[in-house]
Amino acid sequence: MSKQIHLAAHFPGVNNTTVWSDPESRSQIDFASFRNLAETAERGTFDFFFLAEGLRLREVKGRIHDLDVVGRPESLTVLSALAAVTTHLGLAATVNSTFNEPYELAKRLATLDHVSGGRAAWNVVTSWDAFTGENFRRGGYLDKADRYVRAEESLRIVRSLWDAWRDDDLVLDQAAGVFAREGAGAFADDGDHFTIRGRFGLPRSPQGHPVVIQAGDSDQGRDFAAAGADVIFSRHGAFEAGQTFYKDVKSRLPRHGRAEDSLKIMPAVTVVVADTDAEALDKAHHIREQQVSGPTAIVLAELLWGRDLSSYDPDGPLPADDPVVGSSVTQGRVGYNDPAPIVAEWRAQAAANGWSLRQTVINQQNRQTFVGSPTTVAEAMNHHVQENAADGFVLVPHLTPGGLDDFVDRVVPLLRERGVFRTEYESTTLRDHLGLRR
Amino acid sequence: MSFLITSIEIDGAGGHPAAWRGSEVDPSAILTGELALRAVQRAEAAGVDLATFADALEAPADVPERVSARLDALGLAARIAPATERIGLVPTITVTHTEPFHVQASVATLDWVSAGRAGWLVDVSSSAEAAAVIGRRSPAVDAETWREARYVVDVSRRLWDSWEDDAIIRDAPSGRFVDRERIHYVDFESPSFAVKGPSIVPRPPQGHPVTALRVSSEDALQAAGDVDLVLLPGASDVEARVAAVRAAGGGRVLLSVSVLLEEDGASGVRRAEGMDHVGGVARLAELIEEWAALGIDGVHLRPASLELDVPVIADALLPLLRERKLVGAARPGSLRSRLGLSRPANRYEGSRR
Ligand SMILES: Cc1cc2nc3c(=O)[nH]c(=O)nc-3n(C[C@H](O)[C@H](O)[C@H](O)COP(=O)(O)O)c2cc1C
């Protein structure tokens, strides 16, 4: 049988992918928008619905970045509410491991798993920086090198809390008056970052453990994922980069005694569908122009160059300056570790094509992964999965909340026809959708 | 006299330790949230103004015959929000160890998902057990935790104000999604924590979700002046305690009483011990009228059993209170408006740089 594709819906947010100025764009905060997109994903029998997190508003040159969507509700609370209006869809919350305590994480995530009947997932992210830390008690918080030490310890402890009740500790014998076996939930842990003990107040959840997702890209991040995650949310949506990443991460699994299919790789991708390939290309180009306005082009160039470029004309040539490594011109988003070769590539492409700064950003940062007719898109996606560039995809629409309508109505049926995507849910837990063991 | 506010408490299968053993109870429904959902929906249909949800940082005590498990109150309230339309949802949130920034964001989000029906019942964690599950700080004495809780309430309100209501402008011609002049750093400092701000969540529908606390100690009373809603547990000494809350500047005052609404429960496992009121609804309605005369703004009923007592509250007590003109018609709108509280002005409005 062909490999089965896994699909997730990302609620679009604070990146310039989101075209908030489109007349079809609705609220980024109202529950109706979350509900609408989740219902679309469930109609498409997606594996899960995904929410990102940011713990401080982004800044450019010391001021709040105002060109993209700003602000969003808190993930776990939104997903608990979505549990009420969906029945099968997995519910994945991005929650930082640096600015949270394992006991509270375990409690909140286990609650989501209980009230959703086994549909919870935790995307463990590891921002550690002082910029974010200023919103928290300790401020500053961690050295970069410690972020995965704390993340690993957090994950280990959270899992031990989820296991603090054995499956049969919940007795519920009304006649005998035994709610739970005595001693259920006891835990104690002494690690580098935590020394905790007590009793965990939630029995083992429907999935045993909520699904664990990882999204970091560094060597440490990949090891962390290979050691303990169920899903990787990657940024490598392009075919070759996807294959390289896939091979790299899956090859790390045996070292941790894990089977190849115990970790699903799901890159973030965007999809543009239209009646014909030519129409889809036009539409994609139009979307790109909306995503990268002149001011946005400057901000994205500032992130790469690491310096103030406000005096530059986005419709003029690229900045002549060399990039600055490790600058804080933009805060609250992932920067470039080694900008020089990227700047060189941009310059070469701009010179070869006669592109302005804005045109260069539009073309060089194009992350549109699947563009074409429904058939083209379905075949390309299936090709990626069968050829191990991915196990599935996290779809990032450019519109809230109607951005996945076309995909679900026009592409999903073709994937089903090809026998590579489910026609209906076969189970109710996310772990089962993903083919993962309890 | 204005109408009374009515509310109920959701706690496991009910406040009575043996409530989960009744034949009418499916105890597994405690953990799916179904039991709570059913109770809140029944209460809502009867016009009850709000439901509180019990919680604590530490797990319930490990006693075999008692419910020793509990869902996170905020997650449970959020699960119930889309399945209800009018009733206020007020989860207990402990603030001693939890990051204030996360607390305010979650409560603001509950307000968004419930379209303006959220509150939070602020509580502290002064036990050694609570400190040990987090493992970060030593247990503090009650007075200190309440002092800190007041800072948490303060910074939460500031963070809720950190976005002006009209900060999202979606101004396509200038390419600006927000007007950053209408989003503010709070730069809050207290003796034990600091928060830069602004919140990540835009100002919630109610401006400030309803802040409540339970006055069960002198230290908690000191904080009563900072909140919108005060729960006063127990039926004795009502007049003096209400006066003390009023003197402290507290908002609405609800008398919080545990009720068992029939003496010989169908299940045979119910006993009256420790309940504030045991008996029929006629007597309870009389008592409520007496308490109203002593100055309370409403009642917070803690049912012995959700499955047995909430239907009686909904089907018998509320109609009786309405008949006696103690309770009015069910009021629509935000939780604040149900409680007769105005929507707070934003402290940063007009302070644009
Ligand atoms: C596709 C993708 C999505 C991410 N989403 C978030 C997010 O929503 N919130 C967040 O704080 N970090 C997010 N991150 C950041 C990572 O979780 C991680 O903290 C960061 O990449 C630093 O780790 P690294 O050095 O291993 O890459 C994301 C990363 C990737 C690759």
Automatic annotation (TrEMBL), chain A:
It holds the Pfam family Bac_luciferase. Residues 25-387 form the Luciferase-like domain. One of its GO terms (molecular function) is oxidoreductase activity, acting on paired donors, with incorporation or reduction of molecular oxygen. FMN binds at T94, Y148, S218. Keywords: Flavoprotein, FMN, Monooxygenase, Oxidoreductase. It comes from the Bacteria. InterPro entries: Diverse_substr_monoxygenases, Luciferase-like_dom, Luciferase-like_sf, NTA_MOA. Belongs to the NtaA/SnaA/DszA monooxygenase family. This is FMN-dependent oxidoreductase (Nitrilotriacetate monooxygenase family). It comes from Kribbella italica.
UniProtKB/TrEMBL annotation, chain B:
Belongs to the NtaA/SnaA/DszA monooxygenase family. Transmembrane segments: none annotated. Keywords: Flavoprotein, FMN, Monooxygenase, Oxidoreductase. This is Alkanesulfonate monooxygenase SsuD/methylene tetrahydromethanopterin reductase-like flavin-dependent oxidoreductase (Luciferase family). Signal peptide: none annotated. The keyword Oxidoreductase applies. GO terms for molecular function: monooxygenase activity; oxidoreductase activity, acting on paired donors, with incorporation or reduction of molecular oxygen. FMN binds at D55, T92, S216, S217. Pfam families: Bac_luciferase (PF00296). It comes from Kribbella italica. Residues 36-250 form the Luciferase-like domain. InterPro entries: Diverse_substr_monoxygenases (IPR051260), Luciferase-like_dom (IPR011251), Luciferase-like_sf (IPR036661), NTA_MOA (IPR016215).
